Every structure is written in structure tokens, then in C-alpha cells.
Amino acid sequence: LATWTRLLPRRAREAQMKRFCKAQAIQRRLEEIEVTFGELEQQGVKLEKLLREESASPAELRTQWMNQLLYLVQKKNSLVSEESDLMITVQELKLEEQQSRLDQQLRRFMSKEEAQKTSAERAAEQETLARLLEVVNQRNALIHVQEERRLSEL
Which interval of the chain is the signal sequence (predicted)? Predict the structure, then answer.
């Protein structure tokens, strides 16, 4: 039992650090996506201008510009999808963090003998359990959303 009481908090801290590092990586990627959106927007504006202003250009050139514009739209859609996935992952990490915290609280409550608990402690334990179940249900719903998105993309 003594080993578990030392091991659980350490594992919880390790998991917390992993979530933190993952959240930082996601934040960096979201910033990169934002910059790329700006670049794609600028390229798109240039191509649209060319298509409007250079209406006398050869058909081959206009087709090339149109294909480049379509490529930009595809790339932007791909980034929008990635951004959406990352936002879901951020939400998932937040819920994971909440679940971990609530789980630790619940373990503290449950480590005390039932006969030694006050009515306030019992009520707090029940409230913590209810919040933990709510977080688990929210995580489950997020996983369901991700699955639905994957299936719709296929």
C-alpha cells in the first residue's frame, strides 16, 4: 500500500507533464496553421486577381491559375479539418486533466474509512463521483464525435 501511495502521485504528475507537452505541441501547430491560412489567403487573392484582370490571357495559363486556386482551396480545407481535430484533442486533454484531478480527489475520499467520514465528506465524495462521471461522459461524447468525423471523411 505504501508503494502505491508514492507511485500514484508520481504517475499522475508524469501523465500531467505528457498532457502539457502535447498541449504545447498542439498550440504550436495551431499557430503554424494560422500562418499558413494567411499565406494561402494571399496566394488566393493574387490568383483571383490574375483570373479577373487577365481575361485575355491564353486558356492554358488561365487553366493553370484555376488549378492552382483549386489546390489552395483543397489545402485550406485540409488545414481546417486538421485544426478542428486539434481543437477536439485540446478539449480531450482538458477533460483528461479534469478526470485525473477528480480521480485523485476520489481516491483521497475513499482512502478514509467510511465510519470516520463526516456527512460533509460523504456529500463531497458523492459530488466528486458525479463530476467524474460527467467528465467521463463528455470524453466519451468527444470520442464519438471524432469517430463520426473519421467515418464521414472516408
Answer: none
